[in-house]
Design a protein that fits this description.
Low-confidence stretches of chain B: none
Mean pLDDT of chain B: 96
Strand order of the largest sheet of chain B: 2-1-3-4-8-7-10-9
Strand content of chain B: 15-25%
Shape of chain A: globular
Shape of chain B: globular
Number of strands of chain A: 24
Radius of gyration of chain B: 21 Å
Structural class of chain B: alpha/beta
Number of helices of chain B: 10
Low-confidence stretches of chain A: none
Distance between the termini of chain B: 65 Å
Strand order of the largest sheet of chain A: 6-5-4-1-3-2-14-7
Largest interface: A-B, 74 and 54 residues
Oligomer: heterodimer
Distance between the termini of chain A: 30 Å
Largest sheet of chain B: 8 strands, mixed
Helix content of chain A: 25-40%
Chain lengths: 607, 295
């Protein structure tokens, strides 16, 4: 029997809503289930509404789904935010010492005086979230011991007393249910299955872990929401791995420092969000021109300008692909989930080092805060590419030296890739400069030299497309001819996968393509896909349909875009209904649709 | 085999300088290559980093690893190099536009953190590469292509600025005095920590006021006059009078080491933090740390 349960916990920021969700996530992972957790924090430093949604299943999960089965409200505000989603069949657990809910048809309701129990029985208000966990454990048969293990792991550093206090709190919750409530719903956490060898990571944590596994030894960044936590996660790991994190004075400096470290011979990266990427663009051009490997992670947030710093958007695709003066070889990767955030960060370093180019990884605010359990990566099986370092003894012919000078920008290789000289080597002394230059780095303006060097830089892109592009295109196209081919990138691809599964189970012939290498674009893959689909649809979290525009220009496809720009990611149901709408309207042609085209005024209250 | 000490000429690259004849920056190349020779530095262990401007072409004219970066961005790149490879001698060779206009935001942080790099600012008080605009260190009234009426801007004081940011070595020297310049740059490179040298390096083409002729006789060596570089307050006091000559025809131009103090560098502190952490060879353990704790 398949099993699929979503629990949403909402309350005041700082009340332990997020850690309660984390404990549930761990319990589910330990029990051997797939689990996805999505957190949302208030923008305020303290207080404000926070929530954590945990979905558990025995089949692979792509998202936290459309809505919840069980809602646990720590306060009235959480209830107000979520009450419109209290549909028949759902469950509400709430703090009855804080508020009383309205009547909801078919909703099963469990009042628990959480604040009273915490304040007056436990004499410790901070235990409220753990009491709630005890309640949830007893109501839905979540293994209490598992939650206790998580609590112990988290609090043991604060001493046995703290652990004991929390154990008492969880038991209080359990006993309150036993003594006061009668179970009226049928939701049950499944009995523990076969434990799996999994890790639980958040998006930004996966980026940090991937970077360390790839051999990153230098990380420079300026704090910016929602990218800062990449640094939080990497700081101690990178030191233990022999590297260093430097908090730069601004994003211009961050990328400059990373490039300096790269020149000095180590793998280097920076992370930022859209505003920071703006500041980096001059150095981005410089990195392409000087052929320095570097990885730049852009955890996108809702722009423009300061926009909504904690909110989701896929608005930086143009920025990642086109920003900078002049033209440079670069690669842009975009993971669709947490597991890919890990592996694509490793790939980003590999591409950067192999092709000596800047590589941008595009994630986003929601992906950064999403936690997933996924199979533990086996580091020994992960391919890590190190750069081609010049060694004079390997160059007896002197291909890369002439007249006593090292030829950093030699034109002698077919693929445009030439060895890098690393400071300390007397045989590889050279200059790098943002000026156009000849093979030995001396600045030159000559038309022929300029043309050769441009072609050298872009031959690397040609090779990348031939050797390394195809594996970044996840093709899920079982139908030789399909009504609809859906293309989605980044986090939107996750919701799309779930929508496609549902549509196929209704008999719809839908093909899907999930590109994770957005630049350079493997046009042939997109065109082969498009040929087999009557119409192409592209849902995106931005105003103009940035991937759609790119594919129109590069691959000559004529897509119907579906654009939302509200700061929240798509839920699967929306994409499902969008595709159904397109199916029902065969006359629809290329263009952009928004939720108001589908739902009218109602669209604004949809999420 | 005995290694022969390289001569100053051995540190010159094959690239011919693009500067106008009579440019003060030629002297800086001479002083730098002499310094490298005297200190016995190996070219492969030196990295020269610059920004954009006439002076920032300098790394290309010297035989060492050279990084010609963006306008104003030499210091961040130099920091990245130094932190990745503390074994290297990292020198920023830059100008007053890089240092006190477009890239000025980097100065306080490099200085206060005492990162072990040397910054040599060739200060000609004018923008030369873009052909004659006033710079942040230009005197009031200077004519430039964008100030045909004579500049109405007050100048920034390089020495006082860097002193107040907490640089642990601050000096000023003059391109017309090769010996003083060499001695000063040598002290700066030998200094462990962030060192800043402002080189008054006249532009013969665009700055017709602050010329060699002008500075000759005005420069006074503060150390010869008894200034003790360990005295921070006195250093600041002298520095505040650094630009007096812009307003007072009788005021001297102080050169010499204003301040020098040996304190722990960022690099040292980084190393001691690293020692506090157990080094981990097995990368798998970083991933395994994310497993839910076993029941």
């Amino acid at each position: 029997m398949t099993f699929d349960l979503t629990v949403k916990i909402g309350g005041e920021g700082g009340e332990g809503v997020i850690s309660a969700g984390d404990f549930l996530t761990e319990a589910a992972a330990r029990a051997g289930y797939y689990v996805v957790n999505f957190k949302s924090f208030p923008a305020e430093i303290k207080g404000g509404y926070a929530q954590s949604t945990v979905r558990v299943s025995d089949k692979k999960l792509y998202t936290t789904g459309d809505s919840f089965d069980i809602l646990c409200c720590f306060n009235g505000e959480a209830y107000e935010f979520n009450k419109k989603h209290l549909k028949p069949g759902t469950v509400l657990v709430y703090d009855s010492s804080d508020f009383e809910p309205e009547e909801h048809d078919g909703v099963m309701i469990y009042p628990v005086p959480l604040s009273y129990l915490a304040k007056d029985v436990m004499k410790a208000y901070i235990t409220k979230n753990v009491i709630a966990l005890g309640v949830l454990c007893e109501l839905f048969r979540i293994p209490v011991q598992s939650i206790k293990d998580s609590i112990k792991a988290k609090f043991i550093r604060k001493g046995e007393q703290v652990v004991d206090l929390n154990y008492k709190a969880i038991e209080l919750g359990v006993n309150y249910v036993r003594e006061n409530l009668k179970k009226v719903d049928e939701y049950l956490f499944p009995p523990p299955g076969e434990p799996k060898n999994v890790v639980i990571m958040e998006g930004n944590q996966a980026v940090a872990k991937g970077a360390v596994v790839a051999g990153c030894k230098f990380y420079a960044a300026y704090p910016i929401t929602p990218a800062t936590t990449v640094g939080n996660y990497i700081v101690e790991d990178i030191i233990r791995a022999g590297g260093w994190l430097y908090q730069a004075e601004d994003e211009i400096a961050s990328l400059g420092m990373a490039l300096g470290a790269s020149f000095a011979g180590v793998k280097a990266m920076t992370s930022t969000s859209g505003p920071g990427l703006c500041l980096m663009t001059e150095f981005l051009s410089y990195a392409g021109m000087t052929e320095l490997p570097v990885v730049i992670v852009d955890v996108q947030r809702a722009g423009p300008a300061t926009g909504m710093p904690t909110k989701h958007e896929q608005g930086d695709l143009y920025h990642a692909i086109y920003s900078g003066h002049g033209e440079i070889p670069r690669a842009v990767l975009a993971p669709t989930n947490v597991e890919e955030s890990f592996y694509l960060t490793v790939e980003a370093f590999n591409l950067a080092e192999k092709y000596q180019i800047p590589v941008i990884v595009l994630t986003d605010a929601s992906l950064s805060l999403r936690a997933e359990a996924f199979p533990t990566p086996a580091v020994k099986d992960i391919k890590v590419i190190d750069r081609w370092v010049y060694r004079a003894e390997e160059d007896p012919e002197g291909t890369f030296r002439r007249a006593g000078r090292f030829l950093r920008y030699s034109l002698s290789t077919e693929d445009g890739i030439t060895p890098m000289g690393i400071p300390g080597d007397p045989k590889a002394i050279h200059a790098i400069t943002g000026l156009e230059r000849q093979e030995n780095s001396d600045p030159r303006n000559r038309p022929d030299i300029r043309t050769w060097q441009m072609e050298k830089r872009f031959r690397k892109v040609k090779k990348l497309l031939e050797e390394d592009a195809e594996r970044f295109y996840e093709m899920d196209a079982p139908f030789e001819r399909s009504y609809i081919g859906v293309i989605a990138w980044g986090l939107t691809a996750s919701a799309t996968k779930e929508a496609v599964e549902r549509l196929r189970s209704k008999g719809k012939r839908i093909n899907a393509l999930y590109p994770k290498l957005l630049w350079p674009l493997k046009v042939s893959v997109v065109q082969d896909f498009a040929k087999r689909c009557e119409r192409i649809v592209i849902p995106e979290s931005n105003w103009s349909g940035q991937l759609a525009t790119l594919l129109k220009a590069e691959a000559n496809v004529r897509p119907i875009s579906y654009c939302v720009y509200r700061g929240e990611p798509f839920i699967p149901k929306e994409i499902e209904e969008f595709i159904e709408y397109v199916l029902e309207n065969p006359s629809l042609e290329e263009g952009v649709l928004t939720p108001s085209d589908l739902y009218g005024e109602k669209a604004y209250g949809l999420i | 085999m005995v290694e022969l000490q390289l001569k100053p000429a051995d540190y010159k690259s094959d690239v011919e300088p693009t500067w106008c004849s009579g440019c003060g920056d030629f002297g800086v190349v001479a002083a730098l290559t002499r310094t490298f020779s005297e200190l016995g530095l190996k070219p492969e262990n030196i990295v020269s980093v610059s920004g954009i401007g006439c002076s920032s072409r300098l790394p290309l004219f010297v035989k060492n690893y050279s990084v010609h970066t963006l306008h104003g961005r030499a210091i961040p790149v130099a920091i990245g190099i130094k932190l990745a490879r503390p074994d290297l001698t990292v020198i920023v060779e830059t100008g007053d536009g890089d240092m006190f206009s477009i890239g000025a935001g980097h100065n306080p942080h490099a200085a206060r953190r005492n990162i072990d790099i040397t910054v040599i600012c060739m200060d000609n008080q004018v923008y030369g590469l873009t052909k004659n605009q006033v710079s942040p260190t230009s005197r009031e009234g200077l004519y430039g292509s964008l100030t045909p009426y004579g500049s109405i801007d007050r100048p920034v004081n390089p020495v006082a600025t860097m002193l107040s940011y907490g640089a642990t070595f601050v000096a000023q020297t003059y391109a017309g005095n090769l010996k003083h310049m060499t001695d000063t740059i040598k002290k700066a490179i030998q200094h462990k920590g962030f060192s800043f040298v402002n080189v008054i390096s006249p532009c013969p083409t665009f700055n017709k006021v602050d010329t060699f002729q002008y500075y000759k006789g005005k420069v006074k060596d503060i150390n010869e006059q008894g200034h003790d570089p360990s005295d921070y307050r006195k250093a600041l006091d002298l520095a505040f009078h650094d630009l007096d000559h812009y307003y007072d025809p009788n005021a001297p131009v102080p050169i010499g080491v204003f301040y020098s103090s040996q304190t722990e560098t960022y690099d040292d502190r980084m190393m001691s933090v690293k020692k506090r952490y157990k080094q981990v060879e097995d990368l798998q353990s970083f991933v395994d740390a994310c497993k839910p704790k076993a029941i």
